[in-house]
Write a structure and sequence with these properties.
The complex is a heterodimer of chains A (706) and B (433).
Chain A: H1 9-15, H2 20-23, H3 32-72, H4 74-78, H5 83-87, E1 92-98, H6 103-120, E2 125-128, H7 136-154, H8 160-168, H9 174-191, H10 193-202, E3 209-213, H11 221-233, E4 240-246, H12 251-256, H13 259-262, E5 265-271, H14 275-286, E6 295-296, H15 298-312, H16 315-332, H17 342-350, H18 354-362, H19 364-371, H20 375-383, H21 385-417, H22 429-438, H23 445-454, H24 459-475, H25 482-504, H26 510-517, H27 521-537, H28 542-561, H29 571-574, E7 575-576, H30 579-586, H31 590-599, H32 602-605, H33 623-632, E8 637-639, H34 640-655, H35 660-663, H36 669-684, E9 688-690, E10 697-700
Parallel strand pairs in A: 1-4, 1-5, 2-3, 3-4, 6-7
Antiparallel strand pairs in A: 8-10, 9-10
Chain B: H1 11-20, H2 25-35, E1 45-50, H3 56-66, E2 71-75, H4 82-95, H5 111-123, E3 132-137, H6 149-154, H7 156-160, E4 164-170, E5 187-191, H8 196-205, H9 213-227, H10 234-254, H11 262-278, H12 287-296, H13 316-330, H14 336-340, H15 361-364, E6 369-370, H16 371-381, H17 390-401, E7 405-408, E8 418-421, H18 425-432
Parallel strand pairs in B: 1-4, 1-5, 2-3, 3-4
Antiparallel strand pairs in B: 6-8, 7-8
């Protein structure tokens, strides 16, 4: 499976558990140690949280699978001799586990799954990967290795001699596997009953042997077929259960296995949660909460979400990206010491050094804040550290309150937005969140059009939405929402009254009745026109008035609470905003980088002599750059002699006019050597390859060929 | 119908054997006459072939077991290397010599060792004056082992100079086995497919104890009427018969019909069997699910088969990559300019296509295309600019591992890899939506 994740060097440095890397360029005064510790503990929290989320999400799937496994070999255990069981051909119980294309996430799923199995069903689990099993022999070796090791894990030291024998020479055949299984189950049943009490209470007397094929698609057809045929012959002696991890669609089973083989299986389908839902939950629990002080800026979040949606669908990569943001933030931003729980932050503010205070004074958002103060306070803020610290405490509290309110109001707005036709502001809360972080959402056109649409909602929808909003506000941690809740409830009661009022006078349909009486076409037209006229000029009904009020109220909430974060003072402390860094790390463009390096070496070498306006080929550039630029002008096949000629002309221009006499007919040996070296470097980089079509020509492998 | 008779074996045993292998009497009597009496040398190697589940393995097993002939039965798929195969034969031979303490580990790496050890094993027992039969099931696997294995097995009698007969069972004809270098020709015996009458007879033989044989035979008749068109595999038919029998009995159990009311029973079971043909038989839903469904009397509609889940959710760019790959695979290179360039000049007359190009490209199958062409098409079909990031390239490899694309020509991976798109038009339509 690919959708690769490249561990960034920074992370590796962190994993060495030293804060030295964090110190780096920054000096001691900036609390690098503390930042490192904060970052670590925060990451630990987030990690356990995400794992918990994943566990909860997978619970349903795992429960289904476990019950499937429990049932699968009930016949085997009960040893029924009924007619049906005797006559029926024994199929291998198989679970087709459709996990989606995010192959990187599967590892974690399988790991937790085998943990669940270990605890509930059976200690005998083998996880097979296609890359380890190119043929049936290595598959059997791998399988037996894993199974017999797991056996030794169960009772650790007792059977050391047995292990040694098996490691020396395992006959990798089904018979030896069956013998092993018999000996193991017999032992657990009879010989050491007292010792086994604990485990046999969890597992049955003959627990099934579960073989998991992690990536079904990549397995060779022949290997799978052979394995299934072999094991189906021994299904009576060895209760085997297969689990196929499928990334695409279960159709792959039929395309990999012919009917004669698939008829040996008893396949049941299990589907995991879609990765998009998984991401939504993660975003909901990690970002739209006040639990974690660290926040992502709008652009950064957009980059992460884009990588997810456009490239890999991998939730793990998203979390890794989030981690990278965190590390980067704590590493680069000296003030990130204050990015912790509010209680700790207060203490830390008091112990800030003078340098850190200066850092705060340099923050653009703080400067803006200072400019808005009266002049005495401005001076105090800029000169007195203690006063500054008090203010910071206040501001941090403000920021915290802002977050609390923000989340609730965002959810509330989402309730309204998500039911509008065509979703002008997006369907998912993450889209709304990004829009709100980006800029003042109420100034966008989309917001305007959604309000327009909201003003046309029908009553029942409106009432349910209001009820949802009330729930959101009641359950939120923000303290300012008592009034809001009151107001919303008031709206609700008004709607209630309206309904009663309408029930009282439902005679209003009289005009319609009149209309039905008319048969004359002319009269009909006339009355219709009149009706239309009256409707246009008619005053808004009570319901419409109320609807306007509600929408206006929501609008006012949005305007007060959904201010973009970068308008808030001290937002730099908790928000990570440098999206370009992230993009460079997570979405690297090797081709582009290579092209820039070769086309414009100044970009990387920073040598003033190399600075050029492009177009012309500088002769001071490294040889490979010259060769590269020259080859850009050629077609699919490049004549080496011409190339060398051009190269020597460019290089000779450096040497000055005195060399031209010699180079006119005979190329200098050194230049020749340099040329050959540059060309072979280019070949190593994969731009050209030797061609057999024409002598003395090489073929271009990149653009220009086609 | 020829009754089995052979002077060497008691009549009662032969009668029992005959009841065990219905519809295979002629083959069995042929085998018996080849085998001869216990101590007589038999033909060195016998090759038995026939279609899937024509009773080759079953007949051999029953024949050897009932007559209590010393034999070794090995499946060549299971013992996938020659070493495993040879060792397994020796182990089984040791165990049938009824000297349990002798079952030490055997090491047998070459055929030479095998011949030596086999001589020992045969000599050390009371097997001396009996023919030992070595049955190799799924013998077609032997062709993939070392080149000497098959010819050596064929003349094992000669090599060991002992009373040994090798029986090869296979689904394919002997002509496909014959090595280039020539070998000893075995005696070939063909097992023909069971006819519908045979199937009826064999299937009805094992009726459930609580119902009469006639009742079950009538059921089998209906079952064969439905399934004979698609499936002649005895095992599969038996499986299907058992799965659906409870449904057949339902009216009888409820008292709505008696056992002779065939028409009513037929009406009850026929649609059910048809449904089974579309689902269980194709393994769209598993047999246990089918049984559960029957038990709960639920509609099979609510349980979607495997093929119903064809939709694959892909990341945004993977979708476009796949579409681009599909276009590159099925459109000729010539038309790229016309389809993907904004200013492509005027479209020439339609009859410029040569005759052979008029056949649909879909009938010809996907053609390989280079990576650059794929990317060029990708850039032109995606609206906004696409940076050629590492993620895009890794998605191509991912698509290859997911078997949606396939790589053509593995030697040239670094410079100029070529791919093929392996998905169908329907799949692409679903992706493009």
């Amino acid at each position: 499976g690919c959708f690769v994740f490249k561990p960034s060097p920074k992370r590796r440095r962190l994993s060495q558990k030293t804060a030295i890397g964090f110190r780096g360029r920054n000096n001691e005064s900036e609390d690098s140690e503390l930042r490192f510790v904060t970052c670590q503990s925060l990451w630990d929290q987030i990690k356990s949280e995400t794992e918990q989320i994943q566990e909860d999400l997978n619970k349903q799937l795992f429960d289904n699978l476990v019950s499937f496994l429990r049932q699968s070999h009930s016949e085997f255990r009960e040893k029924t001799t009924e007619w049906t069981c005797r006559m029926k051909s024994r199929e291998i119980p198989t679970a087709a586990l459709v996990l989606g294309v995010n192959v990187t996430d599967h590892d974690l799923t399988f790991r937790s799954f085998s943990e669940v199995l270990q605890n509930n069903i059976t200690p005998y689990i083998a996880l097979l990967e296609a890359k380890d099993c190119p043929d049936i022999k290595s598959l059997m070796q791998k399988l037996m290795g894993q199974l017999m090791n797991c056996y030794t894990d169960v009772d650790s030291l007792e059977d050391e001699d047995y292990v040694q024998v098996s490691q020396n020479r395992i006959r990798c055949s089904m018979t030896s596997l069956i013998n092993w299984y018999e000996s193991v189950t017999k032992k657990t049943n009879s010989e050491t009953p007292s010792k086994k009490r604990t485990s046999s209470s969890r597992h049955w007397q003959s627990p099934p042997v579960v073989v998991i094929f992690k990536d079904m698609e990549s397995f060779a057809t022949k290997v799978l077929q052979d394995f299934i045929v072999i094991s189906s012959q021994h299904i009576h002696e060895l209760p085997l259960v297969l689990i196929f991890g499928i990334a695409t669609s279960p159709m792959i089973i039929h395309s990999l296995l012919p009917h004669s083989v698939s008829s040996l299986l008893c396949i049941e389908l299990f589907q995991s949660l879609s990765c998009k839902d998984h991401l939504s939950t993660i975003i909901d629990k990690l970002l739209l909460t006040t639990q974690f002080p660290f926040k992502l800026g709008g652009k950064v979040l957009q980059v992460l979400i884009n990588i997810f949606l456009y490239h890999d669908f991998s939730v793990q990569n998203f979390i890794k990206g989030f981690q990278l943001c965190m590390v980067e933030h704590f590493y680069t931003q000296p003030l990130s010491v204050l990015c912790c729980q509010l209680v700790d932050a207060r203490k830390r503010v008091n112990s800030l050094s003078h340098d850190q205070c200066e850092n705060i004074r340099k923050l653009p958002s703080f400067r803006r804040y200072v400019e808005n103060q009266v002049s005495e306070e401005q001076i105090a803020l800029l000169t007195e550290d203690n006063f500054l610290k008090e203010t910071i405490q206040k501001l941090l509290e403000d920021l915290h309150v802002y977050h609390e309110n923000y989340v609730s109001v965002l959810r509330c707005l989402h309730v309204f937005i998500s039911s509008l036709p065509k979703y002008p502001l997006g369907k998912q809360i993450r889209e709304l969140h990004c829009a709100c972080l980006e800029n003042q959402v109420w100034e966008t056109e989309e917001y305007e059009s959604s309000l327009q649409l909201a003003r046309m909602l029908n009553k029942s929808d409106l009432v349910t939405m209001l009820q949802q909003c009330v729930e959101i506000f009641v359950s939120s941690s923000g303290k300012e929402f008592d009034k809001t809740v009151e107001k919303l409830k008031e709206f609700l009661t008004q709607f209630q009254k309206l309904e009663e009022a309408i029930q009282e006078r439902d005679v209003s349909v009289s005009s319609q009745k009149e209309l039905q009486k008319k048969t004359d076409l002319y009269h009909l037209q006339k009355t219709l026109l009149e009706l239309k006229e009256s409707r246009r000029s008619k005053k808004l009904t009570k319901f419409e008035m109320l609807r306007f009020e509600v929408v206006d109220f929501i609008d006012s909430l949005v305007r007060t609470y959904l201010v973009p974060a970068d308008h808030k003072t001290l937002h730099e402390i908790v928000y990570f905003n440098t999206a370009s860094v992230l993009r460079g790390h997570l979405n690297a463009a090797p081709r582009t980088a290579l092209h820039t390096a070769l086309n414009n070496p100044y970009c990387y070498l920073k040598n003033q002599a190399l600075k050029s306006d492009g177009g012309s080929i500088s002769n001071k550039a490294p040889d490979i750059c010259i060769v590269y630029k020259l080859h850009l002008e050629c077609g699919r096949l490049i004549n080496l002699v011409d190339w060398l000629e051009a190269f020597s002309t460019v290089v000779a221009a450096v040497e000055g006019p005195n060399a031209d006499a010699a180079s006119s007919d005979q190329v200098d040996d050194i230049i020749h050597a340099r040329f050959i070296r540059a060309v072979s470097e280019l070949e190593l980089l994969g731009f050209i390859k030797p061609s057999k079509q024409k002598t003395d020509h090489v073929a271009r492998l990149t653009w220009g060929g086609c | 119908m020829p009754n089995l008779e052979h002077p060497a074996y008691p009549a009662a045993t032969l009668l029992q054997l005959e009841s065990l292998v219905p519809c295979r009497e002629s083959q069995v009597s042929m085998l018996l006459s080849i085998f001869g009496e216990r101590q007589q040398f038999s033909f060195p190697s016998i090759f038995i072939y026939g279609h899937t589940s024509s009773g080759k393995t079953y007949v051999m097993q029953n024949l050897l077991n009932t007559l209590q002939l010393p034999h070794v039965f090995v499946n060549c798929v299971e013992y996938f290397t020659s070493r495993l195969l040879l060792e397994e034969i020796l182990i089984q031979l040791q165990s049938c010599s009824s000297e349990p303490e002798q079952t030490s580990r055997v090491h047998c790496d070459t055929f030479n060792d095998f011949v030596r050890l086999l001589k020992q094993a045969v000599a050390s027992q009371e097997l001396q004056d009996q023919t030992v039969y070595i049955v190799l099931d799924r013998a077609e696997q032997l062709r993939e082992m070392e080149a000497n294995i098959l010819p050596a097995f064929l003349r094992l009698q000669e090599l060991t100079d002992r009373n040994v007969t090798v029986v090869l069972l296979s689904e394919i004809a002997w002509e496909l086995f014959r090595p280039n270098t020539g070998c000893f020709e075995p005696f070939t015996l063909y097992f023909p497919d069971y006819s519908i009458g045979h199937l009826q007879k064999i299937l009805s033989q094992n009726h459930p104890p609580e119902y009469s044989a006639d009742f079950y035979a009538a059921y089998i008749n209906i079952l064969l009427g439905v399934f004979y068109m698609v499936c002649r595999d005895l095992k599969e038919l038996q499986h299907l018969a058992v799965l659906n029998f409870s449904k057949y009995c339902e009216p009888v159990v409820r008292g709505e019909a008696n056992e002779r009311d065939t028409r009513k029973l037929w009406k009850n079971i026929e649609p059910h069997l048809k449904k089974a043909m579309q689902t269980v038989y194709l393994r769209e839903i598993s047999s246990s699910q089918w049984e559960r469904l029957q038990h709960d009397d639920g509609e099979p509609g609510q349980l979607k088969g495997l093929s119903a889940h064809t939709h694959v959710e892909l990341p945004y760019y993977s979708k476009f990559l796949l579409i681009a790959a599909y276009l590159a695979s099925y459109n000729p290179v010539r038309t790229d300019k016309r389809f993907f360039l904004k200013h492509h000049g005027k479209i020439r007359k339609t009859n410029f296509m040569k005759k052979h190009e008029k056949t649909s490209n879909h009938l010809l199958g996907p053609k390989p295309f280079p990576l650059d062409r794929l990317l060029a098409i990708l850039y032109s079909i995606v609206d906004n600019r696409v940076a050629p990031t590492a993620n895009i390239f890794s998605q191509i490899t991912s698509l290859v591992t997911l078997q949606l694309l396939s790589m053509v020509g593995h030697n040239d991976q670094l410079d100029g890899p070529r791919y093929k798109c392996t998905v169908s038009l329907d799949f692409i339509r679903a992706v493009a939506r």
